[in-house]
Amino acid sequence: MPKTLFLLISLTCLSICRVFAQANLPFNHGEVLNFEVSYGWLNLADAKLEIHKKPQRINGEDHFKIDVFGKTKGAATLFGKVNDNWGSYLNKETILPSQSYRHIEEGNYRKHEVIDFDQVAKKAYTTLYDRDNRNVKEKRLFDLPGEVQDIVSGFYYLRTLNLSQLNPGDSIVIRGFFDKEIYNIKLIYEGKEKIETVFGEKNTFVFSPQIPKNKLFRGDFPIKVWVTQDTNKIPVRIKANLFLGSLNLDIVSAKGLRNPY
Q1: Does residue 79 contact residue 106 with C-beta atoms inside 8 Å?
Q2: Which of 41, 178, 245, 248 is the most exposed place for a label (fewest CB within 10 A)?
Q3: Nearest in space to 179 (alpha carbons), one of 205, 211, 210, 140
Q4: Which of 224, 228, 223 is nearest to 200 (CA)?
Q5: What is the pLDDT of residues 177-219, one digit of tens each?
Q6: What are phi and psi of 37, to 5 degrees?
Q7: Measured between alpha carbons, how far is residue 210 from residues 194, 204, 225 in Å?
Q8: Is 261 a domain residue?
């Protein structure tokens, strides 16, 4: 998946997140969500969202270790092989990331980066490694305007939002830190829709982010996200309208759900 598109889709999820009590979290350790990425009739890639089976300790506190994997397959590899891993350590009490990382392999491009967050002191410490992920190339310190999310944590904050309180047309703006910048994304709640999924028909909430006009996407609100209305609050579909056709991410399987289907 092109990294620009991955960023916009991820920020879409990041933008619609608000936290309520941890006891109400709809996900747990050991959950795995598998998605298929398609363009028309072509299956381009597989994506997987996985929560480690056991809590991970950082600074004496328990965290969810969450990984997102994206890998091209079939004919898509002819246009550039992608094998990416994005990750986050999400504090189980605050539901804020303490660390994020990304290991990017896209064609000949490589990037290995770790970001350590101090959400109290409002600091982000970035460490960039060399192509082989062995030696440190650069370290930088960034001031933050307040609490921030990372790319991966956005997928899970999405599911902690009390969506039932929203009315069509409502918007949410939230901060995220990514690639040395602060992003403020507005996302519009469009309402409810019943769609067919691998789990059967599901009632869903539908959201669209407001993004700047560009040469990749078509329309004022080119990306839509469908989230189930049930207790799992799973993102089951993401659609991006491109100038030529559309790109779709559809869930194909899930295991380890806190509330099994």
Answers
A1: no
A2: 41
A3: 140
A4: 228
A5: 988 999 877 788 999 999 999 999 999 999 987 766 666 677 7
A6: -105, 125
A7: 23, 20, 12
A8: no
In a domain, 260, yes or no: no
The letter for the amino acid at 160 is T
CATH of the domain at 246: 2.40.360
Distance of alpha carbon 213 from alpha carbon 91, whole angstroms: 35
Measure CA of the first residue to CA of the last residue in the chain; give whole Å: 29
Instruction: Look up the pTM and report it.
Output: 0.85
C-alpha to C-alpha distance for 154 and 149, rounded to whole angstroms: 7
| Unique residue bearing structure tokens 């997928």 | 155
Query: What's the pLDDT at 214?
Result: 62
- Considering the domain boundaries, does residue 22 fall inside one? yes
Does residue 223 form part of some domain?
A: yes
Number of domains in the chain: 1
Pairing of strands 61-72, 42-51: antiparallel
Structure tokens at 37: 């990425």
Angle, CA 51 vertex, CA 45 and CA 54 arms, to 5°: 150
Residue 163 structural domain: 3-255
